[in-house]
């Protein structure tokens, strides 16, 4: 027998409609690329999103077509989130930190029809215009007064505010199928090209419900939310959707992610909840410590994307009374998988017992099931000691990558995360290692395989292996180990110079170590775990004994 409830599809546009109708007066504040602060309300957002939806239709964007963004966190990006997905097209958030070769590849692979961009990315757009064929136009997310002077292909360049001004706000969000695609985000694979994760309206809305819950990110209409995590990285962990669902005030930082700018915004807008990777919080904490400030409104901060060090948790909680919510997720999981919030019997814990729990990535939010398995595929017990490969499943977990004929990654219906973890009897998961061979620096991926491939092209290099070495600021940085031809005089600096221009600047290893040999397994594969055992602390040690160290200066993300 069927239930007798209404059949209403779960759609991204319904989040915006709810925000407009029930929280229309709630504010959205953005630090703009133009340098000033912009503020308006949810009802303005909804109205402009409808105008934009009409603008997209006028550009000939058909349902299912991909519309790309190269943009920071801001209100125009938010308008695109809803106008694109709401009208049935697919929002494709591009990661501007990738090398231009990868950005071009991704645009062509996704067959993006339009690229919307913030002015900071103009030089990148100029180069892309010459390289990519699929977009029919590029839209500068600014007003007429700030429009760039004519570019090479000026007829393909449009002005965002013109597009909004030219269309009225009468637009009915279409009743889509909830399983239709709503947005697309590429993630760097361990080998080969980046892979696209294609979210649906249903997966997005279900993820929004689950991620907003009190034991998840704990969001409400009383919150002022500052997403520092970029809107191009897994939809800013879903916060733009969550804010609409709960009616929270939103504060967008634009391109200014340094400690001082973030602190000023947090205080000026009385932010209660923020979210980002540990590297960003390091900058914020250093700034606040230097100027001797406090947080007058911030109560919670979500830290994820990389393990949150206990020193950071204790600093936030003891010095500033800001509760840390340690979370784990992935692009393939929309992204929230686990959040570390205490169970009732743990709330009285204090001191190191409390921090021992908070060092864990946390327990599953409803919707995500997880298990850890050994090499034979058998489940490993949840005893807090035994480790295994972490697998997950749920309605907002990817089952296949976009636009590929590769076999689906699933193992018996479970998605292999590439993380190695243990789980305790309370269901708290803790990442202990990574089986995927990638480096995560400041929250963004670096492909070890790509660096090795480029380094191996140097005629003096006979073998190259790149590993993740711990770093106090960036969490991890690439360390390149090479074997050179007998008699070669190649130096580390010469090899680094050879890499320049062939990989993104921030992918450049901080140091190159010349070694006699690189350990290989029976099948000829480099034994990365052996190298990690030996070199994982290379930068930490080098930075401590800075003078006379062989580590090159510490590179920065741009
Ligand atoms: P991404 O798809 O870029 O969001 O990266 C997801 C990956 O980042 C995970 O598979 C983990 O390897 C890593 N990661 C995310 N959150 C955490 C965390 N809290 N602690 C440790 N690693 C994390």
From TrEMBL:
Source organism: Caballeronia concitans
Name by which UniProt lists this protein: Long-chain-fatty-acid--CoA ligase
GO molecular function, one term: ligase activity
A Pfam entry, by short name: AMP-binding_C
Family (UniProt): Belongs to the ATP-dependent AMP-binding enzyme family.
BP-aspect Gene Ontology terms: fatty acid metabolic process
Superkingdom, taxonomy of origin: Bacteria
Domain AMP-binding enzyme C-terminal: 451-525
Alphabetically ordered keywords of this record: Fatty acid metabolism, Ligase, Lipid metabolism
Domain AMP-dependent synthetase/ligase: start-end pairs: 19-402
């Amino acid at each position: 027998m069927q239930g007798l409830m209404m059949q209403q599809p779960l759609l991204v546009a319904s989040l915006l409609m709810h925000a407009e109708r029930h929280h229309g007066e709630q504010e959205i504040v953005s630090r703009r690329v133009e340098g000033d602060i912009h503020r308006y309300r949810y009802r303005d957002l909804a109205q402009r999103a409808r105008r934009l939806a009409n603008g997209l239709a006028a550009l000939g964007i058909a349902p299912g077509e991909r519309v790309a963004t190269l943009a920071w966190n801001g209100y125009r990006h938010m308008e695109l989130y809803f106008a694109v997905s709401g009208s049935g097209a697919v929002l494709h958030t591009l990661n501007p930190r990738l090398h231009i070769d990868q950005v071009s590849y991704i645009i062509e692979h996704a067959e993006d029809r339009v690229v919307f961009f913030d002015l900071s990315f103009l030089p990148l757009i100029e180069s892309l215009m010459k390289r990519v064929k699929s977009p029919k136009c590029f839209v500068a997310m600014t007003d007429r007064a700030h429009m760039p002077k004519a570019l090479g292909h000026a007829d393909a360049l449009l002005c965002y505010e013109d597009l909004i001004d030219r269309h009225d706000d009468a637009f009915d969000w279409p009743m889509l199928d909830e399983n239709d695609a709503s947005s697309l985000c590429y993630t760097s694979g361990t080998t080969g090209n980046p892979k696209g994760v294609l979210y649906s309206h249903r997966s997005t809305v279900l993820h929004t419900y689950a991620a907003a819950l009190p034991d998840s990110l704990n969001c409400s209409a009383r919150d002022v939310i500052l997403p520092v995590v970029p809107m191009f990285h897994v939809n800013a962990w879903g916060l733009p959707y969550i804010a609409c669902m709960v009616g929270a005030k939103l504060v967008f930082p634009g391109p200014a992610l340094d400690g001082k700018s973030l602190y000023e915004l947090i205080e000026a807008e009385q932010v209660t909840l923020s979210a980002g990777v540990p590297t960003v919080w390091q900058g914020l904490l250093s700034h606040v410590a230097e100027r001797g400030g406090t947080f007058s409104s911030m109560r919670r901060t979500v830290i994820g994307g990389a393990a949150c060090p206990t020193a950071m948790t204790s600093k936030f909680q003891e010095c500033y009374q800001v509760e840390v919510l340690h979370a784990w997720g992935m692009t393939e999981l929309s992204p929230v998988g686990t959040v570390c919030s205490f169970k009732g019997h743990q709330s009285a814990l204090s001191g190191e017992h409390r921090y021992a729990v908070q060092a864990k990535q946390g327990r599953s939010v409803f919707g995500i099931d997880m298990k850890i398995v050994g090499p034979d595929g058998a489940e490993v017990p949840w005893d807090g000691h035994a480790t295994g490969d972490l697998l997950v499943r749920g309605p907002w977990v990817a089952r296949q990558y976009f636009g590929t004929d590769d076999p689906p990654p699933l193992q018996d219906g479970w998605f292999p995360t590439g993380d190695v973890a243990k789980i305790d009897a309370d269901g708290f998961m803790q990442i202990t290692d990574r089986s995927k061979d990638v480096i995560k620096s400041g929250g963004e991926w670096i492909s070890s395989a790509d660096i090795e491939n480029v380094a191996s092209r140097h005629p003096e290099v006979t073998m190259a292996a790149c590993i993740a070495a711990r770093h106090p600021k960036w969490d991890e940085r690439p360390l390149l180990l090479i074997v050179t031809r007998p008699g070669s005089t190649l130096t580390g600096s010469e090899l680094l110079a050879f890499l320049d221009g062939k990989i993104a600047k921030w992918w450049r290893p901080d140091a190159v170590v010349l070694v006699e040999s690189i350990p290989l397994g029976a099948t000829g594969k480099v034994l990365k775990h052996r190298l990690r055992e030996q070199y994982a602390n290379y930068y930490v040690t080098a930075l401590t004994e800075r003078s006379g160290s062989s580590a090159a200066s510490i590179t920065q993300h741009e």
